């Protein structure tokens, strides 16, 4: 049997690679990073949520102390972007006192197992959250009114979010 000419082999290879590429490619995924600023200052906490323009999985990432956020294994596509800091807002009890003033110790006389340490008391967590809280316009947290969007194409991308 005679070997196929070089052109025929090249064409067969090209067709094979094209078919493999079409059959083997799913949505591109990658990492999206960025920084969230409000009135020129980095937000110190909250969440960034990405909602697909069509349907599909919603993604959420925490905003770090320096204003940065990171999405790992994000699927390519068009997204509405929501930013929410309300989870850091200081809570108030029904009596009108700040929740941070509430007692955050175990009940008197409670026996604690040896070596047991309580997590950060509620008051400390509330104080830390209050320090990081910045009130932003509610429209940014609402998927129906946010004006923020992005078109992510996979790979490693940076997308800073500036709120007015």
Which characteristics define this entry?
164 residues; alpha+beta; Immunoglobulin-like; 4-stranded antiparallel beta sheet; 2 helices; 9 strands; 18% helix; 30% strand
Query: Number of DSSP helices?
Result: 2
Whole-number total of structural domains? 1
Low-confidence stretches: 17-24, 99-104
Tell me about the largest β-sheet.
5 strands, mixed
Q: State the separation between the terminal residues, measured CA to CA.
A: 73 Å
Mean pLDDT: 80
Provide the structure class. Answer: alpha+beta
Q: Give the name of the CATH architecture.
A: Sandwich
Descriptive overview:
With about 160 residues, the protein is of the alpha+beta class. The chain has a single domain, classed as Immunoglobulin-like. The protein is about 20% helix and about 30% strand. The chain has two helices and nine strands; from the N terminus they run αββββββαβββ. A hairpin with a 2-residue loop joins β1 and β2. The radius of gyration is 25 Å and the shape is extended. It starts with 5 loop residues before the first helix and ends with a strand.
In short:
Helix content is 18%, strand content 30%. It contains two helices and nine strands. The protein has helices at 6-24, 122-132; strands at residues 29-38, 41-42, 47-52, 59-62, 68-75, 77-84, 149-152, 155-158, 161-163.
């Amino acid at each position: 049997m005679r070997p196929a000419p070089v052109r025929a082999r090249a064409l067969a290879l090209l067709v094979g690679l094209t078919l493999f590429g079409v059959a083997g490619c799913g949505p591109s995924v990658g990492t999206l990073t960025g920084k969230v600023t409000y009135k020129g200052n980095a937000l110190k906490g909250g969440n960034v949520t990405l909602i697909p323009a069509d349907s599909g999985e919603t993604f959420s990432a925490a905003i770090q102390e320096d204003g940065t956020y990171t999405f790992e294994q994000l699927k390519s596509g068009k997204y509405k972007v929501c930013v929410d800091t309300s989870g850091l807002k200081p809570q108030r009890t029904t009596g009108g006192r700040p929740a941070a003033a509430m007692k955050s110790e175990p009940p008197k006389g409670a026996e604690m197992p040896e070596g047991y340490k309580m997590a950060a008391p509620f008051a400390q967590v509330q104080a830390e959250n209050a320090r990081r809280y910045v009130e932003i316009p509610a429209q940014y947290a609402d998927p129906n009114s946010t004006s923020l969007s992005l078109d992510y194409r996979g790979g490693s991308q940076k997308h800073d979010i500036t709120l007015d």
